[in-house]
């Protein structure tokens, strides 16, 4: 009886070790996927910049930057079509202007 008990214990222990190794391997992959997801979210958070952030990025005063945008909007209104990169593109949400970092870098 003790011989069977020992062999059954060894088999159960080896199954438990294999199961644990499998679970640890899965958790490592999950951790890597979570890190990639967190990195992606961090990168995407900074894709839209406010006027204050763009002015700081361009080393300008916020008032100067707002005047630049106002002058560009006034000039743009007189055109029916224009070159894409002639003006700084922006979107306006809830009264706040947002600029894409990709477009600002091209300036």
From TrEMBL:
The chain crosses the membrane at residues 6-25. Keywords: Membrane, Transmembrane, Transmembrane helix. This is Uncharacterized protein. It comes from Psychrobacillus glaciei.
């Amino acid at each position: 009886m003790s011989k069977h008990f020992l062999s059954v214990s060894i088999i159960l222990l080896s199954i438990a070790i294999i199961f644990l190794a499998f679970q640890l391997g899965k958790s490592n992959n999950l951790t890597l996927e979570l890190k990639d997801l967190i990195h992606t979210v961090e990168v995407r958070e900074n894709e839209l910049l406010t006027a204050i952030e763009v002015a700081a990025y361009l080393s300008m005063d916020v008032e100067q930057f707002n005047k630049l945008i106002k002058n560009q909007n006034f000039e743009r209104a007189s055109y029916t079509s224009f070159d894409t990169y002639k003006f700084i593109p922006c979107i306006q949400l809830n009264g706040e202007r947002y600029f894409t970092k990709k477009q600002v870098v091209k300036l």
